[in-house]
Amino acid sequence: MKVREATDSDLDAAVDTLTRALVDYPMSRACLDPDGYLERLTEYHRLFVEGVGLPHGRIWVTDDVSAVAIWFPPDMPADAFAPHAAAFEELTGSRAALNAEYGQAIGAFHPRMPVWLLALAAVEPDRQRQGLGHAVITPGLATADAAHSPAFVETQDPANVGFYESLGFTVIAELELPHNGPMHYALYRPPA
């Protein structure tokens, strides 16, 4: 299996992989309006990849794009999401206020120093547990290590915690999100 950086031509396949892999992800289910959920989730991933990931981040994929990892560098412009804020909010629909509340709650745990942020990672459901997630995440970790930069990731799926720990991350915070929301885990990895 070959891993490479994504290009614009990978957009549709990356969006499809993210959507299929994360369709039942706890944070997506909590923050996106259930009315038209699948369409909202697909459009969210399209906006995330096309509007922010490709122009401002680094995206690694397997050759067949069955695994995707989106990293944001420490020097990513602070306003990278700003042009898309209204579209992201519209996608949350009836859950916009809840999404904002969750954002505020988890923002308290974000590192104050520059980090490489693993923003999204996903593997096609029928290809999971075959090493593909590790394969597409590792180049981002190597990039962070080469820059002597720590890495940071968040998850709302407890099953992901052990996987991230196997990559050298340590849980630095756990938070039960309000209104019966999912558990939130913040994980940090010092440079190797």
Please give a handful of descriptors for the protein shown:
43% helix, Aminopeptidase, 21% strand, alpha+beta
Describe, in plain words, how this protein is organized in 3D:
There is one protein chain. The protein has a seven-stranded mixed β-sheet, sandwiched between helices. It is globular and about 40 Å long. The protein is of the alpha+beta class and 192 residues long. The two termini are 25 Å apart. Helix 3 runs antiparallel to helix 4. Helix content is 43%, strand content 21%. The chain has one domain: Aminopeptidase.
Strand percentage, roughly?
Answer: 15-25%
Tell me the overall shape.
globular
CATH superfamily: Gcn5-related N-acetyltransferase (GNAT)
Q: How many β-strand runs? A: 7
Structural class: alpha+beta
SSE succession? EHHHEEHHEHEHEE
**Rg measurement, Å:** 16 Å
Q: What is the count of distinct domains?
A: 1
Distance between the termini: 25 Å
Query: So how many helices?
Result: 7
- Average the pLDDT over all residues and give the rounded result: 96
Write a compact overview of the structure shown.
The protein is α+β, with helices and mostly antiparallel strands and 192 residues long.
Please describe the topology of this protein.
Blueprint: E1 3-5, H1 11-22, H2 26-31, H3 37-56, E2 58-62, E3 67-72, H4 85-92, H5 96-107, E4 116-123, H6 132-146, E5 151-155, H7 158-166, E6 170-176, E7 183-189
Parallel strand pairs: 4-5
Antiparallel strand pairs: 1-2, 2-3, 3-4, 5-7, 6-7
Helix pairs in contact: 1-3, 3-4
